[in-house]
Amino acid sequence: MTQISRRSVLATTGLGMLLEGFLKGWGRESARDAQAAKTQDEGDTKSLALAKYQPVSMVRLKETHVPRAKYPVIDFHTHLTDSAKAVNGVSLGSERVIAAPPNELFPVMERRNILALVNLTGGFGTGLQDTVARYDKSFPKRFYTFTEPSYHLFQDSKYPELQANAIIEAHQEGASGLKILKTLGLYLREQTTQGKLVNVDDPRFDPMWETCAHLQMPVAIHVSDPLAFFKPTDRFNERYEELSNHPDWSFASPEFPSNEQILEARNRVFARHPKTTFVALHVGNLAEDLQNVSESLDRFPNMNIDIAARLNELGRQPRAARKFFDKYQDRILFGTDATPHGDEYPQQVFNDSLYEIYFRFLETDDEYFDYAPAPIPPQGRWKISGIDLPDAILRKVYNQNAARLLSHTD
Ligand SMILES: [Zn+2]
Fold first, then answer.
1. CA atoms within 13 A on the CB side of 164
2. Band of residue 18 on the pLDDT scale cut at 50, 70, 90
3. How far is the CA of 281 from the centre of ligand 1 (A)?
4. Cα 120 to ligand 1 centroid, rounded to whole Å
5. CA 196 to chain centre
6. Domain assignment present for 52
7. I need a surface site. Which of 37, 149, 176, 221 has the fewest CB within 10 A?
8. Diameter of the chain by CA atoms?
9. Does residue 3 belong to any structural domain of this protein?
């Protein structure tokens, strides 16, 4: 029997030629790829794209793992629900989107020693009712929901009164405080999205602030944003990559007021409503200038701050931050800005790693570590050092200061 090789059969059918040709071609392809990668690497040493730069630190330092907070934590700044339909932070209806139900949050809370979460974006109306029922009322002392202004009523001539009444209603429904998004001062206009910009200290909000004082509801206020967001997105901007990725976060154009103008208007509100308790979120939104925040805290006894999403700032000036925590230990609240499934913003995604970084910053003297669970630092290319707070201050920051504002008891 003649042994016919597979090769000769293939060759006679012509298929072999095709296959051989293909294999040779494939070999050439992969060689070309390798060459391209080599050329690219060589090119990189001369001009590497910033987005590709991921330097590995060679410094060898102590690394402390802090899997659980030393004392139970009240996270004063999370976003568990959000408006289903909003334009620049103006909710167009009361419907809420739920980022994660309580049962999805508990495992992280148990592992990391998180006693309670404050959900700042609870909205208003039926959306608020649903949120309070699902979280606060189902799990008392584990969740606190805040209400938000009804800006969709802003054009109504009775807005000041309607807004004050909405706060009273929200309080009756179980809201624990009021949250102001940066919408106020940057986006809200006379005709909601058009017309003249509405100032933070517009007197039409006075009844709202006063009602909060009357009902002892703390006001969590986020106005303005990091200083770099008010500078052009160019090679001198320390948040260049972040602003390039999110061009809508830039307020450098003349249509926006300056950071200073917004904060001055905010301070006039603090001065005009001394009985209202304010928590100026994100280290008073001026963590780059702790001296300035200190001056505001000295001027306004009704002002407190949280540290949410500002470890990048506090941790790059650890000695100044430590002094700041010493001096204002009764007015600093633990907050993270944690958002379940907020993977796009690693500095505020609700997960185990995020909390561990906060604990490491507050509890250790570790140096030069990442402030966010991300391969590239998302809020500026630098690292942070811990501030090693003593136990008495840790207790206040972790839970006592927030407990006082929320009337939370064990
Ligand atoms: Zn927030």
1. 14
2. very low
3. 8
4. 7
5. 28
6. no
7. 37
8. 106
9. no
